Amino acid sequence: AGANAVPAVCAAGETVVDAFRDRFDGGIAANWDGTADRWYSSADASPDGAVMQWPTSSSTNARGLDVGTPGIAELTQKSAVAIPTGAYLRFDSWYSFEGDGIDNFDAGVVEYSIDGGSTWVDIGSLTAVNGYSGTIDTHNYSDSPLKGRSGFVAASNGARTTRIDLSSLA
Fold it and tell me: What pTM value is reported for the model?
């Protein structure tokens, strides 16, 4: 349904400084803890034999597997990152979550912690370009642990770049 807009990395006159950047070249385990049997990168061996190539570049990527059972598949960064003034979180994604065209059964969400992982806050309240795309189904038959929350739902229709303003977290 058309290409997704790509937000600028920086405004005119600003300079890119990466506080953290990961292309998953060293696999998931290099910088991330993931739910067992659900997260892989193209540098890892995938149990379903899927070829994981990112459509917009030659870099590797993280991939969450659909294991067919309800639950949360977490991917958590191992090390804290100091957020500099004027910072943004920018990431590319390509997703296709289950739904029936009306209700969204699966979704992806992004959360952050400022206390070492004791509590987590959804990024939904932060200003974003290409942020969350809908709400997870709330019907009684939904077994999603995320039901009723906003998230990345349905299909991204190709590569999608999201940019989230982190300036309030500096």
Answer: 0.84
